[in-house]
Amino acid sequence: MPAYRAPRGTRDLLPTETPAWTRLERLAADLAARYGYQRIETPLFELTDVFERGIGEVTDVVEKELFRLAPRTEDGESWALRPEPTAGIVRAYVQHGMQTWPQPVKLTQTGPMFRYDRPQAGRYRQFWQFDVEAIGDPGPAVDAEIVELATRFFRDAGLADVEVSLNSIGDPACRPAYLEALIAYFQGHADALPPTERARLARNPLRLLDSKDPAMADLNAAAPRITDHLCEACAAHFAAVQAHLTALGVRFRIEPGLVRGLDYYTRTAFEFYVVGREGQQQAIGGGGRYDGLVELLGGRPTPGIGFGIGLDRVLLALAAAGIASDGGAPSPVAVVVGADPDDTTARLVIATDLRAAGIAARAELSRRKLGKQLEAAARDGAHFAVIVGDELADGEVQLRDLPAGTQKAVPLADLGREVARSHGAHHHGDGSGG
Ligand code: HAM
User: Fold this and answer.
1) Measured in angstroms, how far is the CA atom of residue 286 from the centroid of ligand 1?
2) What is the pLDDT of residue 321?
3) Model pLDDT for residues 271-298, shown as the tens digit of each residue
4) Of 107, 127, 147, best ligand 1 pocket probe by most atoms within 8 Å of the beta carbon
5) Which of 139, 169, 175, 259 could form a disulfide with 143 if both were Cys (CB 3.0 to 4.6 A apart)?
6) Residue of the nearest CA to atom 25 in ligand 1?
7) Atom of ligand 1 at shortest range from CA of 314
8) What atom of ligand 1 comes closest to residue 289's alpha carbon?
9) Site to substitute for ligand 1 among 113, 212, 266, 291, most atoms within 8 A of C-beta
């Protein structure tokens, strides 16, 4: 047993695993750019207030899962690690006066989030999200555009079977009447409520609907549904979102019980599930509209919508589906070896010059014999061995094409160009250049 291990609920991403991550991060960045989202980076921690106000004080995320940082100063500020990016991004939108920019402001971010949850497969204390936010557009068209973007991400990542669950959770006009109906319903079943849920009933009845307590499943299934209580404006908005999704060919399932776990949502709400993995009760992504959040965090009333995709869960689903990713160490194009095992200087200088010319090169820095150096170069999968020998005095080295078994003298001054030219000719179009 090693003395130190990564904290519970966190993982090291080893070089065997990072290629799969890099692929998803690139896909996220490419798609976001194609859809007009610009990258924003916000701090990994914020004033606790930002999360308490933004996400809501009576939510699991804030009540149970917030990583609060121990205060280090007397100035009374309290901070927490971000459990999600939306509140911080909206804080930045307000702080930097983005309401004066052309609307909507379309922002994207991919990075680690922190929730002090009970760790299990697919639930971590540090996890990664690909997030997009479109702030300043009331929809409904942008709602469909965002959901379609998420489905394209899953498809391009290699997950063929992702289901979209869709709902509308109303707005401040229609929700109060619904909440009354909901409270009356749960009060009628007060005896069946677990104590924590009973305590929440008065403070945040909507949260009972996304309770993780199994004792709530039957009660929630029979609870009044927000979709039966939508005001005219919300109902029209919801119908238009569906019509846009249908026009885009995005299939979805109306899920009247879907309310999401964060308080800032209004109207459109959605979650993504991998078909066949529903048993895990784990969404691989979710999001929705938050038309009150900008104002809540001190800005002018401004609508917004976005999603967060859990990259850890996407990778688990890909692995479960047997979709392999290109792991393994990358092969150098050239390995610089030497007849004089002790002359590491010449080998290092030549490899450095090759790298400066843009070529992936490794210098053999061990002092083993030339034969062993060449064997290692071949094992690395290198295309060339650059052999440094007596000709170095005349400004030349031997360039050996390892797979072809051919060799020729090349002036040092031409080496970079020659390696790039021959490597490019051999590897034309296989995309694995050096
Ligand atoms: P969320 O549903 O709380 O939404 O999280 C989004 C996704 O992050 C989840 O669907 C899941 O895939 C992943 N996730 C959440 N918690 C964990 C965890 N402990 N371990 C692994 N993965 C996890 C949000 O965070 C909102 N900010 C989404 C959004 C953006 N809404 C509007 N804009």
Assistant:
1) 6
2) 86
3) 999 997 766 668 999 999 999 999 999 9
4) 127
5) 139
6) 84
7) 12
8) 32
9) 113
Looking at residue 281, its pLDDT comes to 67
46, 262, 291: residue to mutate for ligand 1 pocket, most atoms within 8 A of CB? 262
Give me the pLDDT at residue 58, please. 82
Cα torsion at 17, 84, 139, 34 (round to 10°)?
-30
Ranges in the chain, pLDDT < 50: 429-434
Q: Which residue lies with its CA nearest to atom 32 of ligand 1?
A: 306
Reading the block at residue 425, the tokens are 């000719």
For residue 189, which phi and psi values (nearest 5 degrees)? -120, 30
Q: Which two tokens stand for residue 134?
A: 């479109």
46-61 pLDDT, tens digit per residue, is 999 999 999 988 888 8
Pocket of ligand 1 (CB under 6 A): 84-86, 115, 117, 122-124, 127, 129, 131, 133, 261, 283-288, 290, 306-308, 310, 312-313
Write out the chain in H/E/C secondary structure. Answer: CCCCCCCCCCCCCCCCCHHHHHHHHHHHHHHHHHCCCEECCCCCEEEHHHHHHHHCCCCHHHHCCCCECCCCCCCCCCEEECCCCHHHHHHHHHHCCHHHCCCCEEEEEEEEEECCCCCECCECCEEEEEEEEEECCCCCHHHHHHHHHHHHHHHHHCCCCEEEEEEECCCCCCHHHHHHHHHHHHHHCHHHCCHHHHHHHCCCHHHHHHCCCHHHHHHHHCCCCHHHCCCHHHHHHHHHHHHHHHHCCCCCEECCCCCCCCCCCEEEEEEEEECCCHHHCCCCEEEEECCCHHHHCCCCCCCEEEEEEEHHHHHHHHHHCCCCCCCCCCCCCEEEEECCCCCHHHHHHHHHHHHHCCCCEEECCCCCCHHHHHHHHHHCCCCEEEEECHHHHHCEEEEEECCCCEEEEEEHHHHHHHHHHHHHHHCCCCCCCC
